[in-house]
Write a structure and sequence with these properties.
heterodimer; A: alpha/beta; six-stranded mixed beta sheet; four-stranded antiparallel beta sheet; 12 strands; B: alpha/beta; nine-stranded mixed beta sheet; 37% strand
């Protein structure tokens, strides 16, 4: 599904190398997690994959189902099936959540040559999906993320994911700012979307999210590289012993 | 002295061939007095402080510059709104195209008819509010309008009027130079909505005097648009009585020059006065100026000014807004915000917010900002698959939303939002 080879990235404005050769291969239907200390390059990886400005790729490649991602505009990556759940979802005053969702869904359909959803069909679908994420009608009506609590913002991200039905979902520290109940709700939303054709890359500091969203493979990222990969037990090791031991071991 | 001579010359040149319309004796007096005010003040030049950011030269020359007609191929604005239509073509009332001027709760007359009657209520308003509005800042173009206006309507609301009165200003002649003057009197407890739209003329001078009696309500929604080369100077003078409401919103598209002055005088306690505007301008020939002066001369009143401008490809926006709180106008709540969204580095926004306060128990705030599209929001939208142009348009609408929210009527707000979306999709 997602194939990253030797990806090297520096900041556009500064001479600072963030990713120093990342290799990652995510098969269809599998869930990978990336853990790592602050500043290891986890969020940068998610931004570079989704096409945010400010980064320069200095080497390597990233492909989604064989298509070169790094050459595409962000909207084309989305239409190709990539989705990033933001660590800090952006507030957009003056744009209703519903308008935003419908614009996004129809823009993607249009770019894939599919017919736009009718207002009635869209409404029906969004209501059903919102309900399972405990997003009420008021939240759908309000401007995008404006005045939402941390938990509401993250639930809203998952609602977007559910509506857009991407193939490759990247969750950037989706657990940050969530209490236990909110984390459970968000995880249930994510788990409901797991399927054979859909892959996930879960970026997190903590093992606790991975109790709810069970990964197939866990990677440890440090200093711009993936330094160790393993099964879910690797996350437990981090939880119990911190990163120091693992980093010392691979150094 | 040099400036005084320059103004005298410009004024003399402008007035050389002017003959004032004739009517009843009081009307002729009102016009003659207005003309005397013009002579006394002199027409403005770019060297006047109040015209520092907007060059009035094309508004003061005797021969109006021409303006080509532009057809955006749209259905007429407010087409779905139940309203009483009054149509002016290049500044001349068109009875054929207009609805019958009869409507319950309101008296509507053509200005020239009212001005030829020996006894008419409009005598106490026509040119009177304009003359009051000449202090402390001179507005000579408004006095010139009072002197010269050939057409317009006078409206007196005596009750809550069931549907809006809609003034439609069509522009069909590339050389038209129109001077219109409308007067609205809202009796105690009455309520009326006035709509205005259309490019009107190659050069358009329009005044609106509004007298809102105690407990009355006046709602005003206006669009100025379409023709890229048109020029307009408009004035609104309002006297706002106790516990009454005045709300005005203007949406401006295109136009080589637009100067909208709004002069509000709050004279009764517990009154509300809101004036708001949104404009979208594309190209270095676009120049739009909102000049507002709100005087608080009563207790416990609220005023709001909300102005938003979207400028691109070298467009210029101007805002001059003032809140004057007179001694004794305690518990005044005054708010003023002017913001511009600059879509490139060639466009500019010039703002002069002013507060002048002589009472000690008031809350007044003002703010002014200029900014570009929020890159984080743009990326967020694009990452959801919204193409960059559509995303920019959505964020532009979002920027204008606070101003559009000032329109109380949902159907009117929706009509204007549609119009904005159409403009944005044509200009992206």
């Amino acid at each position: 599904m997602l194939e990253i080879k030797g990806l090297k990235v520096k900041l556009e404005e500064e001479d600072k190398q963030i990713l120093k050769g990342v290799d990652l291969n995510i098969a269809p239907g599998s869930v990978h997690a990336i853990m790592g200390p602050n500043g290891s390059g986890k969020s940068t990886l998610s931004y570079v994959l989704s096409g945010r400005d400010g980064y320069e790729v200095t080497g390597g490649s990233a492909a989604l189902e064989g298509a070169d991602l790094l050459d595409m505009d962000p909207e084309d990556r989305a239409a190709a099936g990539l989705f990033l759940a933001f660590q800090y979802p952006v507030e957009i005053p003056g744009v209703g959540n519903m308008t935003f969702l419908r614009t996004a869904v129809n823009a993607q359909r249009k770019s894939r040559g599919e017919e736009e959803l009718s207002a009635a069909d869209f409404l029906k679908e969004v209501r059903a999906k919102a309900k399972s994420l405990k997003i009420d009608a008021d939240m759908l009506k309000r401007p995008v993320n404006v005045g939402f609590s941390g938990g509401e913002k993250k639930r809203n991200e998952i609602l977007q994911m559910a509506m857009l039905e991407p193939k490759m979902c990247i969750l950037d520290e989706t657990d940050s700012g969530l209490d236990v109940d909110a984390m459970k709700l968000v995880s249930e939303g994510v788990n409901a979307l797991r399927s054979e054709g859909r892959s996930f890359l879960v970026i997190t500091h903590y093992q606790r999210l991975l109790d709810h969203i069970k990964p197939d493979i866990v990677h440890i990222m440090a200093n711009g590289r993936i330094v160790k990969s393993g099964g879910p037990e690797l996350a437990l090791e981090v939880e119990n012993n911190g990163y120091a031991d693992i980093l010392a071991e691979v150094a | 002295m040099v400036l005084a001579q320059l103004k005298a010359d410009i004024t003399a040149a402008r007035l050389a061939d002017v003959t004032l319309p004739q009517g009843a004796a009081w009307a002729n007096d009102a016009r003659a007095q207005a003309l005397a005010r013009v002579r006394q003040m002199g027409l403005p030049t770019k060297r006047d402080e109040y015209w520092k950011y907007t060059d009035p030269a094309s508004l003061t020359v005797a021969d109006a510059p021409q303006a080509a007609l532009f057809d955006a191929g749209q259905t007429p604005l407010f087409a779905d709104i139940d309203r009483l239509r009054i149509v002016f073509v290049d500044g001349v009332f068109d009875a054929e195209a207009s609805d019958d001027l009869a409507l319950e709760g309101v008296e509507i007359e053509r200005l020239s008819d009212a001005m030829s009657k020996d006894i008419h209520w409009v005598k106490d308003t026509y040119g009177v509010l304009e003359a009051r509005g000449q202090d402390p800042v001179h507005r000579p173009l408004a006095a010139l309008n009072t002197a010269m206006a050939t057409d317009g309507v006078v409206i007196r609301a005596t009750a809550k009027v069931a549907k809006p009165i809609s003034l439609v200003y069509l522009h069909n002649d590339v050389a038209s130079d129109a001077v219109l003057h409308n007067v609205v009197k809202v009796d105690a407890g009455a309520e009326v909505t006035l709509l205005e739209n259309g490019p009107a003329a190659a050069r358009f001078s329009k005044s609106l005097e509004v007298d809102v009696a105690d407990g009355g309500a006046f709602h005003h929604v206006r669009t100025q648009g379409r023709d890229h080369e048109r020029r307009a100077v408009t004035h609104c003078f309002a006297r706002i009585g106790a516990q009454s409401t005045f709300k005005s919103f203007t949406l401006t598209f295109n136009g080589v020059l637009t100067r909208n002055e709004c002069v509000l005088d709050i004279v009764g306690d517990e009154a509300t006065a809101h004036v708001a505007g949104a404009c979208v301008g594309d190209g270095k020939d676009f120049h739009h100026d909102d000049t507002v002066f709100i005087t608080h001369d009563a207790v416990n009143c609220e005023s709001r000014q909300v102005f938003k401008k979207v400028l691109r490809n070298g467009a210029t926006g101007v805002f001059q807004g003032k809140i004057l709180v007179k001694a004794g106008a305690q518990k005044t709540d005054g708010y003023q915000i002017s913001q511009s969204l600059l879509l490139d580095e060639d466009s500019q926004f010039l703002a002069k917010p002013e507060l002048e306060i002589y009472a000690d128990d008031v809350a007044c705030s003002h703010g002014s900002t200029s900014g570009a599209i929020d890159e984080d929001a743009l990326f967020y939208l694009r990452s959801r698959g919204v193409p960059v142009i559509e995303a920019t348009n959505l964020l532009t609408l979002s920027f204008l939303a606070e101003a559009l929210d000032e329109i109380a009527d949902d159907a009117l707000a929706e009509a204007l939002r549609d119009r904005l979306e159409g403009w944005l999709s044509r200009h992206s």
